[in-house]
Amino acid sequence: MGSGTGIGRVRGLGSAKHGSMHWWRQRVTAVGNLLLATWFVVSLFRLPSLEHAAVLQWIGAPLVAVPLILLTISVFYHMRLGLQVFMEDYVHEEGSKVFCVLLLNFYAIAGAALAIFSILKIAFGGVPA
User: Residue 112 belongs to a domain with what CATH number?
Assistant: First the structure.
């Protein structure tokens, strides 16, 4: 069936193929999360200790701060995509759905911004050991 049919509209696969793009973004961020989270856990296990000063020094390295920022972006974006689908499926009133998705977007942006700010503050030496 074509994307202009009734079933295509129900599935969110209109002429812009929004549904397939959303699905693709979820898969790409899932793979990114898997790779970056694996790097994160392995890196933590390789640290000589998990003392505050050692972790701050570790995060302060550019080859650590950049992947941490990428992990943050990928995790928060993936979370937003997944929760958006949940809200679109289970919040039935259109006004409430728009409000919930808007609130979700603010939460995801604020959470990611706070995490990225914290990583950058440590990376640029703004946190005493």
Answer: 1.20.1300.10
Question: Which range of residues forms the domain containing residue 78?
Answer: 22-123
Number of separate domains in the chain:
1
Alpha-carbon span 52 to 49, nearest angstrom: 9
Residue 19 identity (one-letter amino acid): G
Per-residue pLDDT of the chain (129 residues; tens, 9 = 90+): 444 555 444 444 444 556 889 999 999 999 999 999 999 999 999 999 999 999 999 999 999 999 999 999 999 999 999 999 999 899 999 999 999 999 999 999 999 999 999 999 999 988 776
Q: What is the pTM of this model?
A: 0.81
Q: What is the DSSP string of 10-25?
A: HTT-STT-HHHHHHHH
Residue 42 domain-assigned? yes
In a domain, 62, yes or no: yes
